[in-house]
Amino acid sequence: MTEPAGPAENAGGAGEGADAAPASGRPAGLERFAALSFTYFAAVGLFNPFAPLWFQSLGLSTITIGAIASLQSWTRILAPYAWSWSGDQSGRRVELIRLAALGCVLAALGLLGVRSALAVSLVTMLLFMANAGVVPLYEASLAHLLSVGGTMDFARYGRVRVWGSVGFIVSVLLFGALLDLAGTGIFPWFVAAMNLLLLGAALRLPPLREEAHAGARAPAVLPLLKEPAVAWFFASIFFTVLAHTSLYAFFSLYLVSLGYDKSAVGALWAVSVAMEIAFFWTQGHWTSVLAPERWLQVVALATTLRFAAIAAGGRWALVLVAAQVAHAVSFAAHHAACIALVHRHFPGRLRGRGQALYTVLGYGLSGVLGGVGGGWLIEHLGFASVFWAAALSGLVALLCSRRALAHHLPAPAPAPAAS
């Protein structure tokens, strides 16, 4: 389903960038990070849409299936921060990515032998706890690799990150067809195979390491969170992603309730992913148009309009297509702006925990609240109500992003070069 480098990364010692940048100026190993992005999101594209079907085939109730699905949001509250804290303390983020991928494989293999609700829940939770470490560690490592001379190469970041979106859509289409042919019972074998590919991609990552951290503790995060610009930035993330939980959890059900068939539902999802891919591929151009703080305001406004359109015009296919096209801004541009601002606010050995906070505050707490609150709204007021609530959440995100911009302090100008 997104900067200037910190001084600690460019001073003293051989960091990642020093070893990784060849004479051409293109960091080595980007294709390996692209492969990791592809396999990780391909594994997500297999598990998230089709796991409920497998759970159902085991005879689990709808309530149990919903509870198991919610484990992903619950594990996102603590697990990403724990993984990233370890990366910030040790500087060994690539090794930790490999360890997380190994945990994914072991948990996926566990799915082959479980059938009861308790056992399935336990193994699924272990899988979520393991894969919760991959993205924040991966994002922090990639951002460091692409930071040269105090700035991050957004164009190359987008060209790497786009492979995650490609992996997701390829996986959804491929495994949907394969499960139709082979039956739902083969699902855990596919999950094990995809996580083995993820481990293979992690093992191929270049052996990068940041500067030595021996004898020094990583800086504390809490003082940064107390800064108004950072606090309002994370508030805007929370409300923007909270709005999008209506999409992830209830959009397909809403469409079916309006009489759309499954092929139409799939086509509308494909439109949004195609727009996401288009933005990431051309990200270098778009990120030069506006500063990240300005993008947050554009994103919040687009989020408000998108979900208001879904709530009011769900019966008109063209309105829904336009709303899904807006995914390029409400999701992809949001992710790009957030990565830029996390990289700015959390430099050096703070970066991993900054990425983790982005996951925890953006996709953990909001996922839990959006799933539970959205279900309550639908039960009492109908499907449209949850999308009106999402539009309201977008407006709150707009207010928060305006406050973040008001408190924003520009990065200090670089010191003049010595004669």
- Euclidean distance between termini CA atoms: 48 Å
Shape category:
globular
**Broad structural category:** mainly alpha
Written as H for each helix and E for each strand, in order along the chain, the element string is HHHHHHHEEHHHHHHHHHHH
- Classify the helix fraction into a percent range: over 70%
* Low-pLDDT regions: 1-24, 411-419
Largest sheet: 2 strands, antiparallel
Instruction: Provide a count of the helices.
Output: 18
Mean pLDDT score:
81
Rg over C-alpha atoms, rounded to the nearest angstrom:
21 Å
Beta-strand content bin: under 5%
The count of strands amounts to 2
Strand arrangement in the largest pleated sheet:
1-2
Element layout with pairings:
Blueprint: H1 7-10, H2 16-20, H3 30-57, H4 62-90, H5 93-110, H6 117-131, H7 134-145, E1 147-148, E2 151-152, H8 154-182, H9 187-203, H10 222-225, H11 228-257, H12 262-281, H13 283-286, H14 292-313, H15 317-325, H16 327-345, H17 351-381, H18 383-406
Antiparallel strand pairs: 1-2
Helix pairs in contact: 3-4, 3-8, 3-9, 4-6, 4-7, 4-17, 5-6, 5-7, 5-9, 7-17, 8-12, 11-14, 11-16, 11-17, 11-18, 12-15, 12-16, 14-15, 14-16, 14-18, 16-17, 17-18
What features would you describe in this structure?
The model is unreliable at 1-24 and 411-419 (pLDDT under 50). The protein has a two-stranded antiparallel ribbon with strand order 1-2. It starts with 6 loop residues before the first helix and ends in a 13-residue tail after the last helix. It has helices at residues 7-10, 16-20, 30-57, 62-90, 93-110, 117-131, 134-145, 154-182, 187-203, 222-225, 228-257, 262-281, 283-286, 292-313, 317-325, 327-345, 351-381, 383-406, and strands at 147-148, 151-152. Helix content is 76%, strand content 1%. By secondary structure, the chain is an all-alpha fold. The chain is built from 18 helices and two strands. α11 (228-257) packs parallel to α14.
